[in-house]
Amino acid sequence: MLRSNGQRAARVLRLSSRSSQTHAAGDHLNIHNPTFQIYGANTDVGKTIVSAGLLRAHLRAKAKNGTNLSECRTAYVKPLQTGSIHDETFIAENVPSQLGQVHRKTLHFWDIPASPHISARAENRVIADNDVITGVKSALAALPWLREQPAKISGSDTELSSMTLVETAGGVLSPSATIRPQADVYRPLRLPVVLIGDPKLGGISSTLSAYESLIVRGYDVVALAVLDDTTNSDALTEIMRDVYPAHTPLSGTQPLNIVRLPEIPPPEVTDLSSWYATPEHEAMFDSLYRTVCAWQADHVREVTSLQSRGEGVLWWPFTQHQSVGGTDGSPVTHIDSALDDDFHVVEKNGDVVPLFDSCASWWTQGVGHGNVSMATSLAYAAGRYGHVIFPENVHTLAVQASEEILKAVGGKWGERVFFTDNGSTAVEVAVKMAFKKYISTATQKNAEFDTKTIPKLRIMAQSNCYHGDTLGVMNVAEPSVFTEGQHPWFECKALSVDTPTIECVNGKYHVTLPKSISGADDATVAIKAREDVFSLDRDNTPLYKQYTTHITDMLDQAHADRNTRGDVGALMVEPVLLGAGGMMWIDPLFQRAMIRVCRQRDIPVIFDEVFAGFWRLGCASTTQLLGVDPDISCYAKLLTGGVIPMSVTVASADVFDSFLGDAKADALLHGHSYTAHPMGCASVLTALQQYKASPNFDQQTQTLAESWDIAEVEKLSGHRAVHHAFSLGTVCVVALKSNEVGYSSTAGKRVVTKLRQEGVFARPLGNVVYLMCAPVTPKDKCTEWLKTLNRILESE
């Protein structure tokens, strides 16, 4: 708030009404409409003075080019205002109409001159943060030049086609009406920032702190302007040059532009028209304006060229480049930023559109994109450690992360944590652990076991499994599109087991049995209710005996063929839900039977929980769903909340002990340069804390509430276009009816295309369409997305 001889709130509303009309809120911003947010390093640093100066500079530039005063496309928005003297009034008085028309709007105001959270509570008018964002979007959408025609031109390096300023209240982290820091409240807009530095004693510190607070939240800071006599601005210039030589990755080697503005006039000066009109002062504000213009022009060039540049240098995973991009291929998505459950995507016309990340960024997303607590944790770890070598060393974050991992998923079995870099390598490590444990046990129990030559071993694995793209775990999978033709050394070394699956059709659950078990095509066994699927009472059914007999027979045959094909030295299970294999819900009874039969034969059990672990399916570990423990389990994806690559392989004490010996060759000789990197460990600690702090989390059971409305999903399973549907934890799966099923099917592509048009970014798995949220996502959001999917299916 600024001193002024302006009037009270009633006059502010009259001024606003002259330049704004009632219009529906716009759905999105556009990169071609230059809109900037004015933040202050503190309160009373001259934000509104700078806003007025920038607006005047813009109008001067337009006047020089002969633009009609009524067509200067200039606006000022103040979302939150306290006190009887309003900043909008100051703008009206110091950017008079004879300079050009400025559209002004104050959205929410309180009479008590205090921080918004204090004033709002005192006057019993607390405004929700979402309403503030909606109000800003509405105010921007109501601007005449946005209603008249789509934005096409952003201006030049020295002049903007339009200028809109959105000015905050107080400092960068000053509270909103809900007491949430304003930098977090306005983050959904992610407007480029002009930061006003603090010229007072101590202002250098507060300015740098404000700057870092914006950067860690993903804001682009266009310029730093300081109203002083060079004391603070000169010091800030030097500090920025030495400490922040490249203030963001987008700036290359360019430091932040710091612009010195004239000193704030003394309090007794109430009429600033002559102060603004001083040639020296005009030149200073013109300098800031040119900085803003140059940034806008560079930004538009960067954004509009990014897709074609990306197509020229990137090699995307799981992508046939011949069918992507260019004029004939499927479109390339430009993700400008991301927040909570959404990508913010730049469309061809420059609109920045939110899209629900329904594949959870390849199943990694856990705490929401752009999570400020996570960003702060990573910054802390980077600042304290960077990266440090790990073998035979400890650091606080690695030890604490390991302890919390074991508390969450270790149960009564897990005792050791081995860090790796991704899910595939975590499983590679698990294979080494399991085989060593198998050989160690065999040696102890069989004196004739040959320890000089490692025997040929196989892994019992589920058909349609996928454990990663490194060669060892590729060889665990049967031949498929993921393996055949991808590596000349690929050789299936698995004993593949056809798996029974759980399906919900017309709201009824049943087990679909493979022919190898039932001896018949399309054999099914009914299950009374969804909750019975995981019931241990099913262990007493004839089906359990049928499963154990089948698995025993397979292992007996494998043992008989051990000299030619190798004996089974480990069991690898994707517990409950096969992800990449097509989102198949495996019968827990069958997996429990496999595990128990293998245990009886001293075959180590590996759980690949890279996808399913850490509450993806509602539980920290699928051991809570299956009722049995592994010897080794692998975790990634949700482990770090979706922000940084890291994985762990958790092992029992017996597995760890099998590597103890006098020779180094007896140790587990596996690792990578960034093992247990501190930023990864910090992200683990933050992610686990946030999962448990979520309103979705039940502290007593240590489980998550179901994200998707089970009744609605069951209803969807009876749709004419749907073969079956179900939901587990954060995952909702809809398998479409199709003549061709599996990964090569294109049935899901049509639905996914329509989902994109409805604001949902999805990737199909053949004929399977799935929606996946984060463990912290509010359930009401999931309900809306499910309605969207249902509406699209109705149109099929």
Automatic annotation (TrEMBL):
- Zinc recorded as keyword: no
Where this protein primarily resides, as one coarse class? mitochondrion
Q: Name one GO molecular function term.
A: ATP binding
- Tell where it localizes: Mitochondrion
Keyword terms of this UniProt record: Aminotransferase, Transferase
Q: Which GO terms describe its biological process?
A: biotin biosynthetic process
**Gene Ontology CC:** mitochondrion
The superkingdom listed in its UniProt entry is Eukaryota
**Pfam families this protein is in?**
AAA_26, Aminotran_3
Residue ranges the record marks as coiled coil: none
- What is this protein's record name? Dethiobiotin synthase
> Which species is the source of this protein?
Sphaeroforma arctica JP610
